[in-house]
UniProtKB/TrEMBL annotation:
InterPro entries for the chain: DinB/YfiT-like, MST-like
Protein's organism: Actinoplanes derwentensis
Name of the protein this chain belongs to: Uncharacterized damage-inducible protein DinB (Forms a four-helix bundle)
High-level lineage: Bacteria, Bacillati, Actinomycetota, Actinomycetes, Micromonosporales
Taxonomic superkingdom: Bacteria
One Pfam assignment: MST
Location of the region described as Disordered in the Swiss-Prot/TrEMBL record: 1-21
Length: 186
């Protein structure tokens, strides 16, 4: 007897007409970066849909503390660090889901509690809105900004890093979701 894996809709995660992600070819560097960033954000959210609190908090393989919920908390912290703290010059603002005593708090604190889940998704969405408002005013990707370590980076480098961060973690989310319920797809 072979088991059937749920593969979505003809190998796709969502029905094409219901997929919120865009497949247009944007014009210009900033528009292209924003399109990729937006699509990866949507993909991460989609990988978390229709799961119970326990499923969202399922850890990958020991000793890793990675979970889908942990990825949401982690990406909220990443959005906050790069868009609010770094690009908006608020380097003294406290970091989200992080402490010097427990640097893995974003993942370690990802437990199957509805309040923790609500906080994670609310915070992540708020950080995305903050980032998108900042991106609405971005004009020069070559502008250099100060980072927390005292070094300088271009806006372009930070934005490409954000795309890379989401791409890597969407790969993790693919594997986590497949282990939870067998669901695969784009």
């Amino acid at each position: 007897m072979t088991s059937q894996r749920e593969v979505g809709y003809n190998g796709m995660w969502a029905k094409p007409e219901a997929d919120p992600r865009s497949d247009v070819s944007p014009v210009g560097e900033l528009a292209t970066i924003r399109e990729y960033l937006s699509n990866y954000r949507l993909t991460l959210g989609m990988k978390c849909e229709d799961l119970s609190p326990e499923q969202l908090a399922v850890r990958s393989v020991p000793p890793s503390t990675m979970s889908l919920l942990g990825l949401i908390r982690h990406m909220a912290a990443v959005e906050h660090n790069w868009f609010y703290r770094t690009l908006q010059g608020n380097l003294n603002a406290p970091r989200l889901y992080w402490s010097t005593e427990e640097r893995d708090l974003d993942f370690d604190g990802a437990v199957a509690d509805p309040n923790v889940i609500n906080d994670a998704f609310t915070t992540w969405r708020e950080q995305i809105l903050t980032a998108d408002r900042w991106l609405d005013s971005a004009t020069d990707l070559g502008t250099m900004v100060s980072m927390a370590n005292g070094e300088q980076a271009s806006v372009r480098d930070i934005l490409i890093h954000m795309v890379e961060e989401y791409a890597r973690h969407c790969g993790h989310a693919d594997l986590l979701r497949e282990c939870i319920d067998g669901r695969t797809g784009q």
